[in-house]
Amino acid sequence: MFARVHSGVVNASTMLPDGREFIVEIIPKSGLIGELEVLRRQTVSLEYRAGSNCELHFFEGRLLRDKYASDASFREKVFSRALARISELELRIISNAASSLQSRLASTLLRLSAVYGKDVVNSGDELIISQNDLAATLPASREKVNQSLRRLREGKIIDGGQGKIRILNRKALEACANGAVLVK
Fold this sequence. Notes:
- The structure is a single chain.
- The chain is an alpha+beta fold.
- It folds into 2 domains: 2-68, Jelly Rolls, CATH 2.60.120; 98-178, Winged helix-like DNA-binding domain superfamily/Winged helix DNA-binding domain (Arc Repressor Mutant, subunit A, Orthogonal Bundle).
- Helices cover 48% and strands 21% of the residues.
- The chain has helices at 35-40, 61-70, 72-98, 101-117, 131-137, 142-154, 170-177, and strands spanning 2-7, 10-15, 21-27, 32-33, 47-50, 55-59, 126-128, 158-159, 164-167.
- The radius of gyration is 18 Å and the shape is elongated.
- The mean pLDDT is 86.
């Protein structure tokens, strides 16, 4: 079986060696869950859970394997999509290794903005994510994420609380993500 996210977002996570959760990917509306596992006939040790109210549509893995085997155009699309996901993950890992927490947080908020922006009812400027999930996405402690969020709020770059973040100044957030500005 594999699934398509019909609405909402789904978090794909794994555990770090120190026992903390690491959210590897946030899968938006129209995203697929488990398609590569179906095609490779091998499971991946990711846990999937709803990141918001969501609806999933499930499909038989055999249908995907048959289409993949018989349609070269479809095979190319699946391969291209998989490479894009791998490339995005690779860039995040490299960026996270060399960036400050504030820069990583700003980058994550911008990336999530693009994910949330795929839903027609949301412009992408309002994100619904807990501090725990943000910390797991970065990865960082919840306390450090809270401090960085507070600095961004004080700088009037974001606003919100209780699991909601609203981007007020996208240009300033992009500057933080690029390391050009450090909000103190």
